[in-house]
Amino acid sequence: MSVALARTGSGRIVNRPRQASISSFRSTSAHLSPPPSGISPAFETGELDPILATLDISHLIQPITEVQANISVERACEVLLEKKEWCVAVMSQAAGAQPVCTGLFDFSDANAYMHLAVTANSLTPEDLQNDRISQIVSSARLRKEVPVELACNLSEKNPLVMLRNDTSLTTLLEIFSRGTHRVLVEGPEQQVKGIITDGALVKYFASNHDKITTSPVITQVISTPLMDLGVITPPPIVSASPDSTVLDAMTLMSREGVSSIAVLHPGPDVGVLVSAVTVTDIGQLVIPSESKSVLSMKLAAFVSEIKNPHGMVNGEDLYPVYSVLPTSTFGYTIEKLLATKVHRVFVADEPEPNSPPFGQGNLKGVVSLVDVLAVFARRLGIEANPGLMRTSLSSPSETSMSSTPRVPPDVGSASPSRPSTPIHQTSGTQTPKSSRGMVTIEDQSSRLPFKKLLVVFLSLFVCLFVSFLDQTSVSTVLPAIAHDLGAADRINWVGISFLVATTSSQIVIARLSDIFGRKLVLISVIALFTVGNLLSGFAQTAVWLFTARAISGIGGGGINSLCMIIMSDVVSLKERGKYQGFLGAAVALGSGIGPLIGGALSTAGWRWVFWFTVPISIACVGQLWWLLPQSELSGNFLEKVRKVDFIGSLLSLASIVLILVPVSGGGTYYSWHSALVIAMLSVGSVLAILFLLVEWRVAALPILPLQLFRVKNILIIYTTTIMTGIIYYCNLYFLPSYYTDARGFSPIQAGVYLLPLILIQTLASSLCGQILVRTRSPKPLIVAGFSIWCIGAGLQSTFGMNTSKAKICGYLILQGIGVGGTLQTTQASVGTEHRAVVTGARNFFRTLGGAVGLVVCTTVKNIELKKQLREISGLAPELIPKIIKSGPQITTDPSVSEAVRSAYAYALKTVFVLFIPIAGLSAVLAVFLTPVLLPGDKDGISTTKNEQEIALESIPVQHASRTDLESQAEGIEKQDKKM
């Protein structure tokens, strides 16, 4: 990759005259006023000023220049130069939608992009696993233009922060004093109204300090020397020698995450400051093109030409000086920062007589705009941590050179994800805005070498397999458990407790993995699952067992979500569908063979059904502990705890429990009309509404960001998730009922005839993953999968007393193909920052759909069954409730028994008919999904018009446990006694 100068093809530096300003001068005595007499310069942290607390940011808003996401990086650099802007907003617009800001682009990003392009040959295979890097490098090698959206925040210095117009000035000061350089301001309908930079806020405070605060502390600080304020960041400072090249400077700025470096001549202490090179200098002159002459230029020559383009102009030296003295006042330093339009100014002693040309004295440190704002913030009683973002974005400064580029995080998509609402973003990730302040989510993507990936994948596969096997195997030992523990009238709570715990914990656990790291949370939930099963095996009472199953349910729900999330973290977007298809096969296998394994283990005693999973789970923990990368998330434990949405989590858990418990147990232990059931449903509904309000307006890091529902694809996905959850969960309960109650099959036969659906679904899931890798187009698979599923559901509705076994298997095979087609391709239009939450939410909605669907379908079946039973001559009316509860086997008259089985077949057929419109509506909704083209091996950019910014997260269908769900159905059947 070659590089040339801006708007030239000759490799010649283009002279651009500068306006005379304070940037042309060194400090003089006029700027060295001491603090007022009697006032100590060592000012302590103050209290929040009452006047400042009433001000908002509306008067600081400035217009922002917008560029389209698909323009080239080169053109974006030209816009920055032409408009003399600090940065531009990169806008994307989907078909029929309002344009939205996908990120910010400035010269730091341009420097990172150019450095990446010119050092492409030194990248390692691991580096190229990063989707963004791969696309930029492949485009550079093919001499293709790279869209600016790929370079948004490539330097990791431009977190996308959107604030409301009425945000307080103190909130803005707090955000800037923690390292953010600029924020966007939200206009009507979540559009960008304007921008506020840290420089603008510094200028405002410096110019209006006597008007915005009643305290003289700011005035005192303005006139205080730097050395008395303790604001100077001492060495080591990122620097280079005059003999270093421009490429060396680019490498340092990219690797260390800084916007400027000091050019030092060897001397006492750190060295003599000659000048500074900034990303703006690089961006003004170097744009990828045809020449390498500038890259190989020595910094001494580069500085000489770009800093003094015309020498003396009208007797005035326009040479911009990027340094101040330790004795310079804080106010003068602010003037210097604003005049040179840089984020950092260096602090150096007065030059010695023997200093090199343009020398500025021995380097003592650096002061940045963030440091300035941190001083203001602390003096005004606002918490400030200027090192927070600096620590997370850069490694310790060194003066040595390295050709290894600073690799940005993998955004997991062809382009930066598209925010549809105001967001915060750091290191390529986004979090919802909140009135409580800014909370960031860090990308945890970590591409693994193939051998390590294979072992991690197998561990995740086994975890999912064991989790679902545990759910389905328990059904075979429920009678034995009921007998041993004396819990025949309460045995359904074995399933209900597991189901409620699984459903209520999934969203919370997904968000906890964003805060504390995937590895820690996954190992924790596997440990919970293991402890729960161990305790279940030792249970001596029914309450003990129900509690232990709830613990296992929390762990199982976390395993189900986190395995999918982690698989997305460790493989590229291109490979994601394939691997998650294999994980979907683990889910299907665990669900399908669970009853068979449970039956085999039951001969040794029901306790072994629970203990069987313990050693397997421990082995998985060992493998994942050693092989799964540790997420290096910023902040200590207490800082992470503060990010947790405790109010939302408690409201979520309480509302789900209060709704699912009566839905699951109503009709079994309490009448649907009982005060307890009505009260629980009412309170649960109120808490659910409060939960939504908290997530919308209060939570800084909501466990369920409501703005996700504004994205069309996500809304469609969640809707189809609920509906397909209804079908799949009900099939796992009603198909065995059809086999045993209507056809008279044995339990073993019922399990065998469920395998065509499970096994074919497993194969179809894996096959569709391979197809997706090759076609890269998920929408056709989505539509085809739901359509085939709908056809299979229609054929299933013909099941009757005389349907041949071949037809049963054939129709279920067709459904299995359809279900398998939706496992990998039912995806969400989000980027990495919402991957965990979307996965947890999908699992929750699917389980919720199954729970509610089972209630509705069981009620429909019971109504029709009661109607059919009443028409059977010779059947005593008092037997009808018993038949509905226990099945047709309680009848002894062969002719009556056959009629009862026929009634069961007809009632179940009514339920199967309900599946047709549900599957059909899912297929129709799938047609309206926005089409996307996933990145391939050679294509750098998705070619789907106006949809390049959409990143899809593959999340397989979760298979319901018959054990967990049949408890609800049996409870509803018991309610029929009162019908």
TrEMBL record:
Residues 414-434 have a biased composition (Polar residues). It comes from Rhizoctonia solani. It is a multi-pass membrane protein. This is Uncharacterized protein. Residues 456-934 form the Major facilitator superfamily (MFS) profile domain. InterPro entries: CBS_dom (IPR000644), CBS_dom_sf (IPR046342), MFS (IPR011701), MFS_dom (IPR020846), MFS_trans_sf (IPR036259), Sugar_transporter_CS (IPR005829). Residues 387-437, 957-979 are annotated as: Disordered. It comes from the Eukaryota. Pfam families: CBS, MFS_1.
